């Protein structure tokens, strides 16, 4: 599986939520694109990942 352009070994079963937590990020601070489609936060826990998936995780940065 590719995550932000880098190969990452998938340990099934893994959901989008698992991936976010395993990368040390907070669900409320990221947006996730899976194979070119934005995944709603409400679907993170039920969206299973596959070995051939491509995931982009974008973090929100605050500032002022």
Outline the fold blueprint.
Layout (H helix, E strand, L loop, with lengths): L1 E2 L2 E2 L8 H7 L7 E5 L2 E3 L14 E6 L5
Parallel strand pairs: 1-5
Antiparallel strand pairs: 1-2, 3-4, 3-5
Relevant terms:
single chain; 64 residues; mainly beta; Ubiquitin-like (UB roll); 1 helix; 5 strands; 11% helix
Tell me what you see in this structure.
- Helix content is 11%, strand content 28%.
- By secondary structure, it is mainly β.
- The protein has one domain: Beta-grasp domain (Ubiquitin-like (UB roll), Roll).
- It has a five-stranded mixed sheet with strand order 2-1-5-3-4, with no helix packed on it.
Helix content range: 10-25%
User: Helical element count?
Assistant: 1
Encode the helix/strand succession as letters.
EEHEEE
CATH 4th-level superfamily: Beta-grasp domain
Radius of gyration: 11 Å
Shape: globular
**What's the story with the biggest beta sheet?**
5 strands, mixed
Q: Please state the second-level CATH architecture.
A: Roll
Mean pLDDT: 93
Structural class: mainly beta
Separation of termini?
A: 36 Å
- Total number of strands: 5
How many individual domains?
A: 1
Instruction: Give me the side-by-side strand order of the main sheet.
Output: 2-1-5-3-4
CATH third-level topology: Ubiquitin-like (UB roll)
**CATH class bucket:** Alpha Beta
Query: Unreliable stretches, pLDDT < 50, 5 or more residues?
Result: none
Assess the beta-strand content as a share of residues.
25-35%
């Amino acid at each position: 599986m590719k995550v932000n352009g880098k190969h990452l070994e998938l340990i099934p079963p893994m959901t989008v939520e698992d991936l976010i937590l395993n990368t040390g990020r907070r669900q409320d601070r990221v947006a996730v694109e899976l194979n070119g489609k934005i995944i709603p936060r409400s679907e993170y826990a039920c969206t299973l990942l596959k070995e051939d998936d491509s995931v982009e995780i974008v973090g929100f940065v605050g500032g002022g």
